Amino acid sequence: MSVEPEVPIVQVEEVRENPVLYKIISSDNHVFTISEHAVKLSKTLWDLITNLGLTAENALDNPIPVENVNGKNMETIVQFCERHKYDEEEPEYTNYIREFVLPEWDRQLLSIDNEELFQLILATNYLDIQKLMDYCCRVIGDMAKDKTPEELRIIYGIPTDAEDDALERSASDSPGPSG
Amino acid sequence: MSTALPLLDLPNKALELVIQCMEYTETVGFSLTSNKTKESVRSLKLNMEKIDLRVNNIITIRLDSEEGSPSAMVWRFYPEEEDSPGPIPVYMPARVTGEITQRSVVEYQNPGLQIQEWVEHLQYIFSIEDIQNLSFAEENCKFDWNSLKDAFGKFKIITLFFHDVCSLECAQTALRHFPSARNVTPFNSSFNDPSHYRNILIQNWDLLVLGDEQFMSLKIGLDDILLMNSRDITIQSPTLTDKMVNRFFKHWIRGSNPRMELARFAFGNQVVRKEIVLKGLEYQEVTMDPMEGEGEEEVQGYEIRRNDGTVGTISIEPTDQGCDVYFQIFELF
Fold first, then answer.
1. A168 touching B (Cβ < 8 Å)
2. Rounded to 5 degrees, what are φ and ψ at B76?
3. SS3 label, residue B182
4. pLDDT at A176 (0 to 100)
5. Chain B residue closest to A154 (CA)?
6. B257 — alpha (psi -120 to 50), left (phi > 0) or beta?
7. Which residues in chain B are contacts of A153 at CB distance < 8 A?
8. SS3 of B109, please?
């Protein structure tokens, strides 16, 4: 079944070298096109495409609804995937994640406020895009540079042990489901 | 101002990646903010395997991995007043610095932990059970010994290490206050004359390392070696000779040094003649793997047998400085 978009299609990047395009609809009904190489960076989307049996012939007629990701995040995600679709695979972790330097283009892309970054990570996690997850986490990890434990508590919104205990108590005191 | 980024509300996978993106000093700071962050860091099983404590005018904790980590850290703990005359009790630190060598330094007010609590915290988050080295690096310890014992006596300390300037008296006092240590390593000219510390030689250490080309001119004699009751000894001394080692082997055959499992006699410029080392010994030639760190080619070994049937194998292995004579006791028949 094809879903009719309610808002204009957002053409993020024209892809001349790869004619296979897919349509994705965000939770707020924005429609995005994305190339095959780019969409493969999302394990979730690529599994979906494979399971739905979408092909070069029928892909554009069958937009994929993604109910957990809004248009703003999807736009960032599509930009990111198009940018990195031909990247070589990253080395396995160990020290790589600690030592890699975020490219400037990506740093600009991810220069967003904390609430947006948080939501973008949830979306990235849902769509299972490892590279974007690495990059987002690099941005968040970099916030710890030269900070004291108290500053880290504020930056990362970490409750004190007393606050955690109070939260736990109130959760255990609240009545359970009746029934 | 931007709102906080609720790190602990992220999916676990993301939380782990964020922590892995931090420098280890930042990770430690993060782990100090709550019990939950402490558990998060511990669950990552980060690669840090050794904790060393160093006592000089302040107390320092060093963390490293066995093979040497690029994230090796040194944490320094400063008192409120740095010029207090000793002996002083182990203080509540006012200020701490955490340094990754030649890369980054953090510095902040101590978040209310005693130094022993810092040790416990670091042990916990990196899952390290023992203190590898407790080292002393001042001529006379600035700290009150009972206070040091109260602070660190409950930890399982593997090695007591005495740096160059540490006096023999200070070292002897440390040995009395930390009797559970299993190894002793003095790189220290106060230990040049073994006749001044025979009480240390006769103790049943797991490892005793005596002599260092840079810091010592150890005057070892055969009688000193025969007093040693350690499982594993390393001796580097300009007075060590091939003849002395040969005589030691003859004593061993007759029953001396019964606890010994491994001995390394490190020769620098001295000439080591195989025929002198083996003179008068009944031995059987064998080929054996080289000692760890001494290359890969098999080496020639010479098995000798003690009167009780125990077999020991002598090998002479060249090094950059000269050569090492090893003596390994493998089994008891």
1. no
2. -115, 140
3. coil
4. 62
5. B4
6. left
7. 33-34
8. strand
Cβ–Cβ contact A43 with B under 8 A? no
Identify the burial level of A146 via C-beta atoms within 10 angstroms of its C-beta, where 0-12 means exposed, 13-18 middle and 19 or more buried: middle
Token pair belonging to A119? 């939501």
CA dihedral A41, A44, A50, A51 (to 10 degrees): 180
Q: Tokens for B83, please give them.
A: 């010029």
ipTM: 0.85
Residue A152 at interface with chain B, using a CB cutoff of 8 Å: yes
CA distance B89 to B143: 6
Residue B92, min C-alpha distance to chain A (Å): 18
Q: Is residue B277's pLDDT more than 70?
A: yes
Q: Which helix (H) or strand (E) holds A79?
A: helix A71-84
Q: Is residue B96 within 8 Å of B75, Cβ to Cβ?
A: yes
Chain B residues in contact with A93 by the CB 8 A cut-off are 20
Nearest-by-CA chain B residue for A113: B2
pTM of the model: 0.87
A160 touches chain B (CB under 8 A): yes
Task: Sort strands B95-100 and B104-109 into parallel, antiparallel or unpaired.
Answer: antiparallel
Banded pLDDT at A96 (limits 50, 70, 90): low
Furthest CA-CA distance within chain B: 84
Q: What is the distance in angstroms between the Cα of B86 and the nearest Cα belonging to chain A?
A: 31
Cβ of A133 and B17 within 8 Å?
yes
Q: What value does the mean pLDDT take over residues A148-173?
A: 92
The DSSP bridge partners found for residue A49 are: none
pLDDT over 50 at A14, yes or no: no
Q: Region B157-165: what's the mean pLDDT?
A: 94
Q: Which residue segments constitute the domains of chain A, with CATH numbers given?
A: 9-159 (3.30.710.10)
| Residue in B14, B29, B111 nearest the CB of A125 | B14
C-alpha to C-alpha distance for B21 and A144, rounded to whole angstroms: 9
Nearest to A142 among B4, B21, B35 (CB): B21
Cβ B188 vs Cβ B172: under 8 Å: no
**Residue B282 has which token pair?**
């009944």
What is the spatial distance between Cα B251 and Cα B245, in angstroms, rounded to a whole number? 10
